[in-house]
Amino acid sequence: MQTIDYRDLFETLPGLYLILAPDSKFTIIAVSNAYAEATMTKREEILGKGLFEVFPDNPNDPVADGEINLRASLASVMRNCDSHSMPVQKYDIRRPDGSFEERYWNPLNKPVLDEEGKVMMIIHKVEDVTEFVRLQKDQAAKDLLTEDLRTRIGQMEMEAYRHSVEINKVNARLTKTNQELESFTYSVSHDLRTPLRAIGGYARMLEEDYSRVFDDEGTRLLGNIQSNALRMGKLIDSLLTFSKLNKKELKKTNVSMQELFERIRLELLNVAGNAEIQIGRIEDAPADQELISQVIMNLMSNAIKYSSKKEKPLVKVTCNKDNGHVTYTVSDNGSGFDMQYADKLFGVFQRLHHQHEFEGTGVGLAIVKRIVDRHGGKVWAESKPGEGAAFSFTLPLSEG
Questions:
Q1: Burial track 288-302 (b if 16+ CB lie within 10 A, e otherwise)
Q2: Is this structure's pTM higher than 0.90?
Q3: Residue 2 pLDDT greater than 60, yes or no
C-alpha cells in the first residue's frame, strides 16, 4: 500500500493555508502552494519566520490595521482555544521589489488542540477577495458582475454584517471591562500611596535619628529603601496618568506643532546635558494640545535619555505630510533596540533596557500610544541596536 505524504498533500491543497506555531512570533511552519502564490512569497524564504516579519503592515498606509486585527484574532484563538473568523480585512502584500500591493482578505484562524486541550498549532486560512472589493467600490463595474459574483458578494456582505454585530457586542463587553479595570487601577493606586508614604517617612526618620549608628552596609540598604520608594511613587503616578487618559474629553484645536516642539525643547534643556536637539520644519495639525504635548514630551525626553551615553548625543525632529495625515518623527543616535522586541515597547511596564542602564517606569510609551490612538493616529518605532531609534506618530488632518 502506498504511503501518503501528508505534507505534500497539504502543500497542494487548492485553498490558501498557513500553519502557525503558537509562540510569540506565530512562526510559519507550513504553507500551501496557493498561499505562497497569492502572497508573492517563496516557501523556503518564509518557513521558520514570524508571521508579521513576513507580512508587516504597509508602512505607506498610515491607517493600516491588518496586522493589529490579525494579532487580536490569533490572541483570541490562543486564549479561547477556539476558531475565530474575521471580517474582510485590507492587508496589503509586499511585492518582491519591496513595494506594496493593495489586497483584501477573508481570514479564518482555527486551532489544532492536543489531548489536554492546549493549542498545538493554528491553521490560518484566507480567501483573496480583492477583486470583489474593488468591483464593489466601482459603481460602473457592478453592471458587469455575473450572477455568481453578485451572489458571492451578497454572501460576503451578510457575513460582514454578522461579524460587525458580533464585534459590536464584544466591543461593548470590552468597554465595560476597561471601565472596571480603570476604576480598579485608580483605586489600587490610591490605596498604595498610604503604605508607601509610611515607608518613605520611616526611612527618613531612621536616617535622621539613627544614621550615626549605621555602618556602610546599613547606610546603603537604607538608601535602597528610599530610592525604591521614590521609584514606586513614580510608577503609581504614571499608572494613574495612564488610567485617566480615556476619561479626559478630547478638545481639538489647530495646534502650532512647530511652537509646541520648540517650547518642549526649551523645557528639556535642563536635562538635555550636551545633547543637540534639531527641529526641522513642522506642520500644524488638529489635536488636543495638552495631550499631544505629553506625547512630544515623552518621545523627546526618551530620545535624550537613550542617547545620553553617546559622546555627541543628537536628537532630530522631522515631519512629513501625506495622504491626509501628518507624520512626526523623533529620532536619536542612542542605544537603540532589537526590532524583534518592538511589539513590547508600547505595553504598560514593558522595558527593553535594565533599570540600572536607563531609569524609567515603563509607562511613558504606553501613554504615547493611548493618546495617539485616541486622536485616530498610529505610532511605531524603527531601530537597530547601537544605532539609535526613530519613533513616529501620525495625526489625521480631518475627522474623516
A1: beebbbbbbbbbbbb
A2: no
A3: no
